[in-house]
Amino acid sequence: MDCALLDNRYSLARFLSIGPPMKKKFDEVETSLILDSDTRNFNFKKEQHISDDFMNSIKMQRENSFGLLEGEMMSVAQVPSLVYERWLTEGFDIMKEPAHAIVARLKQESLDGFLTTKKKV
Question: What is the rounded distance in angstroms from the CA atom of residue 59 to the CA atom of residue 7?
Fold first, then answer.
């Protein structure tokens, strides 16, 4: 990438390590800088790879949830970090919210594939 296009944002671009794409890992959130055609405006694009194996393991856990005896703690969902970050910016912290609110929000946003139980919470 031509650093002259970034003007005073060169240090920001260097911080983000703009370069060839790296092999994606599941738990990493990839952030890239997208310049508009006029080079005065830019956007950040965040992506997180979610593998089919991960989704299949959640589905299996959800399907088997009625057969499990729960103790003091129960798995309700496995929320990807990118969803968690977006919810934080919207004022919804899953570390402070009750389980039923998390389940409702996942269903509301059609993200119920991340639910790990069919039990009512």
Answer: 48
Q: Looking at the structure, tell me whether residues 71 and 99 fall in a common domain.
A: yes
Residues in Cβ contact with 45 at an 8 Å cutoff, skipping those fewer than 6 apart: 31, 32, 33, 34
pLDDT tens-digit map of 2-60: 223 333 333 343 334 444 444 555 567 788 888 877 777 888 788 888 888 888 988 99
Phi, psi values for residue 35, rounded to 5°: -90, 140
Instruction: State which amino acid sits at residue 80.
Output: P
43 and 62 in a common domain: no
Say if 32 falls within a structural domain: yes
Q: pTM of the entire structure?
A: 0.65
List the domain range (segments joined by +) for residue 90. Answer: 52-114
